[in-house]
Queue: 2 jobs
Job 1
Amino acid sequence: MDNLPKCGANYVPLTPLTFLTRASNSYANRTSIIYANIRFNWRETHERCCRLASSLRSLDIVKNDVVSVLAPNVPAMLEMHFAVPMAGAVLNAINTRLDARNVALILKHSEAKIFFIDYEYIDKAKKAIEILMSDFQMPMPLVVVIDDLDSPTGIRFGELEYEQLVFQGNPEYVLENIDDEWDPITLSYTSGTTSEPKGVVYSHRGAFLSTLSLILGWEMGTEPVYLWSLPMFHCNGWTFTWGIAARGGTNVCIRNTTAQEIYSNIALHKVTHMCAAPIVLNIILEAKPHEQRQITTPVQVLVGGAPPPAPLLEKIERVGFHVVHAYGLTEATGPALVCEWQAKWNKLPWEEQARLKARQGLGILTLADVDVKNFKNIGKCAS
Amino acid sequence: MDNLPKCGANYVPLTPLTFLTRASNSYANRTSIIYANIRFNWRETHERCCRLASSLRSLDIVKNDVVSVLAPNVPAMLEMHFAVPMAGAVLNAINTRLDARNVALILKHSEAKIFFIDYEYIDKAKKAIEILMSDFQMPMPLVVVIDDLDSPTGIRFGELEYEQLVFQGNPEYVLENIDDEWDPITLSYTSGTTSEPKGVVYSHRGAFLSTLSLILGWEMGTEPVYLWSLPMFHCNGWTFTWGIAARGGTNVCIRNTTAQEIYSNIALHKVTHMCAAPIVLNIILEAKPHEQRQITTPVQVLVGGAPPPAPLLEKIERVGFHVVHAYGLTEATGPALVCEWQAKWNKLPWEEQARLKARQGLGILTLADVDVKNFKNIGKCAS
């Protein structure tokens, strides 16, 4: 048939920003964010992101400008994953564990126009900006301090503050049109273990597809209550910064990944899901008796990085955490291989189950190809 | 940042064909298809599709040629959803309930090069071909008969037979490269209730995205056992022709959607999921005592079309079927709105739950926009 019509002329671009619009329409009154005594619902989160995006525009942020942020897993960090691209800009979430020199290197390489700094990291940020200006001869970026939302400290660095930008913004802001789904949405840097940090750009399309793939790979149902133990600066929290909106879930934000914060938030908010590096499993297991709480419904934990040893897996399952293991890297939008559990494995002895869990066999649905020995294809713009 | 790299130059196209490749790699030994006494695993299904695709190429099928099929939910129908596009062609699955004249109209409009006919529909197909040649002055398409795989009848029409094409094909066939994800994968026709049937083209990209969205919207986990009660010719079985491969599940094929076939297959193969028009719910409820079986684990049923009345929903839940209601249309790759259940509704009285179930409120994740009053946007090439 020669005259088959071709779709795509007026196509709607793939972008995770639609997850927020949809959440604010479909799950308006569901809790979107919990942080200490703070609660937002999805309508409010959408409105706060519109306000922040419009404020960024009035600060002269234009398409493809980079906005950097140095912050723990506080609500502002989550909101910026939507608000920054809603302003047409690219979010650069910086690893808070880097030293001032590496932070400076990232600010230089990314040519950050605005630098959002959580009040706890002002000292490190100040040093980084000094290095940026003196060693690298770069101009100082515009600085915005993120004060604590639950217990404001009043600590400032420069004149701008996050809540003030949200307050001043336009709640009716209409987001910058995305005319190309391959446009960048975030810029992340590898941890730089072998050389200087390396920049990795995610597109709107890649972020959209990886988000759906990870929800599918992990079999995350609707209305998850997700605990933010994995840093959001780590591959955008393995895409769950966007994924919880896609599922109409609740983001439980915590400032510190301590045993006490983890246990008390799980018990208080009935957490269903969390992601973690293997070290977090140790933190949980080494909790002091007064920090522990009884976990009544198993928490689904997606563990990345090196495979956790079988004895550790066995112990953590016994205190109420159901582990799924994943492997990935910054260049592949985070986890690219997930150990999809097979029902027949339930009949195996426990040691064998733990051995199988420590593998991470299956490429996620949108990964084009992977070679576990060489990783030659894993960095491809597969999605 | 002006020098942000742009992804997409060497992009991997989105196509549901990758679900089959992935299934044959990742779930090689899992059962892919059950039909009466026939069993295939995903490795075999992949091989059979490669064979059929290569045979189609040797029958001079080239890119964008249309291959039509008139068949019930037998294994061949499922395999063709992969094999036909693997040959670069476009699958046109024809509603078996249409009369010969409407079948002829579709063969004419689609310019079908090959016409696959299940042995049960040879009479209707013969009449349609007569109309095609006499009334429409079109040449006769190449005909392939699909004999029953479990109990071959030997009934033929022309020289070609489905299993013979599979047998003769090359198991090492490398699929036609998809250079554009907007290329057509299937061509379906609306039922033509108000006028002549209307053709709707799905792209590889649209099929891929709709498949993932429906898995997500329905919260279908891995390893589903899916009963083919919904005709595959109906919007490609609401994309589950591809979706069961994506989930590493099992397709339970049945020739007739009778109470006996439904009940016995559910009991025998531990069916977890099925899609259905509301009429199928009536078929189940009106089963004679000797046709019924005890359903021990609830079967998830996605029901489309007009909202089922609340008393019907209540009855069907009581015999072991858990209903989720969806609404869509051929122009929107099948279901576009799914009634996503909210946990808080579990606490409501049963009548109220049934009322909520009969709604179909939420756009699926890849639907760009929808206006329930006007449907003005629903036909867009959203994905």
Note: Residues 368-383 of chain A have pLDDT under 50 and may be disordered.
Job 2
Amino acid sequence: MRATVIHGPGDIRVEDRPDPRVEAPGDAVVRVVRSCVCGSDLWPYRGVRETTAPHPIGHEFIGIVEEIGSGVTGVRVGDFVIAPFTHSDGTCVHCANGITTSCVNFGVWGGKSTDGSALDGAQGEYVRVPFADGTLVAVPEQPDATLYPHLLTLADVLGTGHHAARSGNVREGSTVVVVGDGAVGLSAVLASARLGAERIIAMSRHGDRQDLARRFGATDVVAERGKDGIAAVEELLGGIGADSVLECVGTKESMRQALGATRPGGSLGFVGVPAGEPELPMPYLFSRNLRVAGGIAPVRPYIDELLPDVLSGAIAPGLVFDLTLPLEQVADAYSAMDERRAIKVLLDPGA
Amino acid sequence: MRATVIHGPGDIRVEDRPDPRVEAPGDAVVRVVRSCVCGSDLWPYRGVRETTAPHPIGHEFIGIVEEIGSGVTGVRVGDFVIAPFTHSDGTCVHCANGITTSCVNFGVWGGKSTDGSALDGAQGEYVRVPFADGTLVAVPEQPDATLYPHLLTLADVLGTGHHAARSGNVREGSTVVVVGDGAVGLSAVLASARLGAERIIAMSRHGDRQDLARRFGATDVVAERGKDGIAAVEELLGGIGADSVLECVGTKESMRQALGATRPGGSLGFVGVPAGEPELPMPYLFSRNLRVAGGIAPVRPYIDELLPDVLSGAIAPGLVFDLTLPLEQVADAYSAMDERRAIKVLLDPGA
């Protein structure tokens, strides 16, 4: 098969790789119908995270089940499936608690499983899926191709934005600030609107992202940052910070921004992968009674909650994709996102 | 009046101070019926926190309203009242949000109000209470003296333990670990039991405190600390940490203990005043999807929730008091707590 391999900073190639096959009774092999590039893929691309050896990359895909192992009962050959960005067994205590990202049988596509075996990347033609019953979600009917972008967001960004909103305690009537205008931040705006937030302030300096934020339900946009950004938020909210602030970047600066925009007694939901080592200042949290929650999003259980709204068209999260390229042009997809010419790029292995 | 003044480490004196009087229309003057010594009072007593100038001390009291200003409508002369450890106006946006400890008109007894005026300490005969309507809670009837210790816990420790439990998301059926066996930690055990926790593990190395923890609802006691303590907790809970861990100390070590005892996706409630600068490691929180919440407890609204259970005898939080002394012996009260001869000392200004 053809699949994407990262060799080092700026070095993304599509190569011939062995066709995946069922290796264990719980495996499925899925033919990838659509994949995409994630903001976190840019970290090794930019050299922020080191690539010690070439490896497959990409962790978001939807596709069709091609083959199943003898132990698989939850999906059948021919099913159209959504794959969360991690595999999980669905049966351990952490899965039972809804934290599939802490599953004892865990792995991220393109990385390694907890048993040490290498996993295919999602930016390719096929993926072997261990623990298929715990991992894959079959769409009830074969979806129309117009739904593909929206369904693909369930693999990561929509679930991650939803995790930010849930962790940040967004509810009916909440005031919300979203820090970060990438695909996850925009998805957090959408998720907040879906949960009934009354006021949603998107912090963004880019016109196209501001427009999409408003389309997703943002009531206000704040372009300022730092102290000016906090002052602008407080002016919009009658002199105090927001009930809920969603941190969707992961830098020290964005966390500081988020902490400053949270009202006393408010909640900060974080899903930005911590870059470097931002730490949370206890005395500040203590004096203001802040609640801070979040992490790597357990999107698997969220798919059950969000899929009906995607299928019904109640939400259109796939609008975060503003460029579609064939798999063979994946290097262009990375550079377009790196240079901010695209918010998020959809990849079509069949094109 | 007679009132306690701290002059420096180990130097606690009862002195003659001016009788408080109504200074503003919203003031009340309360005659103190019972006061007590808090674990946090030991910080300046031990020199951990500097005492730059002598000042009145003590922040927990119950008493009888002696005089009210012309603007006070919520309490009447003769009412038996509970005073939270902070005053608050009850009308600002933060009070409306339930975070009375962030009130724009805030002050802690023995310290200064936000307008800069000095506040009487609670370890004395009388206290002037600004914003009496927002601050004081009148008990419906004159309580029997046997209820005094229980009512006094509503001023701080019971509300603070309850805040730990609420912040730590304790609910029906939860597994809970309480780090800290002082009066607040013991109150957190009681609050967790009241909220329906199924399993409550008290971390304590002192026999008398272990006994009281069990009486308050602890199902298990773990005497080990550090990695051994975490291992003991996990052994009790089937291999994982607790749903809720309540940090009731405030040191770097106790926070590390609490973080280590929280299961993936679990909640950590903290009410221990941060000593030094423990900071929260973001990558750890992120990878385990932890929720961390807490701070200086807004006990004023909690009194409404907890008072009925105190009056009915459903809970007996005043058992944390294991020594009662007359006000004139307040120095003995401090040394008894400093030397761990007492968990918490009740002071009787009328004795």
Note: Residues 161-294 of chain B form a domain with the Rossmann fold fold (CATH 3.40.50.720).
